[in-house]
Amino acid sequence: MRPRVGLFRGLAAFLALAALAACAPEDNSTSDAGGPSKEASGSASPSASTAAACAKESLRTRTPGKLTIATDQPAYEPWFVDDDPTNGKGFESAVAYAVAEELGFARSDVTWARVRFNAAIQPGPKDFDFDVNEFTITEQRKKAVDFSTPYYDATQAVIALKSSKIAKAGSVAALKNARLGAQVNTTSYNVITDVVKPTVEPRVYPNNDNAKQSLQNGAIDGLVVDLPTAFYMTSAEIENSVIVGQIEQQAGTPEQFGLVLDKGSPLTTCVSAAVDALREDGTLKQLADQWLADVAGAPVLR
Question: Model pTM?
C-alpha cells in the first residue's frame, strides 16, 4: 500500500488555511461540508485532532472498517473497463481505489454499489460513502449533496455520424437547427439547452446506451457527452462516427468532476483531503495520462 504521507500533507495545508482564518476576530462559523468540526479550545492541536479524525478507525463509514463506493450501471469506458468497477481499470475506478488507499482502506476493504446517476444526486440519505460517476460540481447540486474537491477538469463534446448534416459543423451556430440528445440531468444536456440553444427540441435519455442507439438509428443528429467518452465512443463503439468538436466553457471556472457524498457527510473533509493529496503528489495526473491519454486534439466550436 502506498504510504499515506500525501493525505496528511493535504490535511496540513487545509489546517494552515484554517489557522489563518482563526486569527480574524469573532470567527464563530462552522463548516457545512460535513467534515470534522473545528475545536474551539483544548490541549490537542488542530492538526493532531483532524489527522486522528481522518484515520481509518475514526471514519464514520456505512460499514465500520469498510468503504462503500458507488457508480452507475452500466459504467462506461474510459472511466471503467468491462463495466466492472472492482477491477481497478479505467480512470474513475483507479481514482476511487487511490482515494480509498489514502484513507487507509485496502482494496479488500472496498465494497462497490450500483446507483443510477440521477438517484445519486437527489436529496436524501445515500447507500454509499461516496459515488464516482463523472458528476460535474454545480451550485444547484450542492443543495442536495456534498462534493469532494475536484479530481478532473472536463469539457463537453458533440459526436455525430459521418453522414450527419452536422458532421463538419465548425461552430456552435452551425448546431442551431440540429436535433441533439444527451443523458438526463447531466451537464451534457445543460450544454445543449444553455449554450447551443437549438431551435429543435433536444432529446433526453436515461443513459448513454439509449442515446447511442438513437444516434445510430438517425433519431438525433448529434450526441453530447464529455470529451473522453466522445473519444471512446467514436473510436470503439459507434462505427462511422466523428467528434464534431468541443463546446467551449462559457464561464471562467472549468467544468470539474467531484466525488458525491451525502449532504453533511462526516467524510467530506477527509475525502477531499485525500483527493487533494493525490493531486499534489501527481497521482491524478498519472492516472489521467494512463486512462485518458487520447483526449486531445478535438476542434473547439465557438
Answer: 0.79
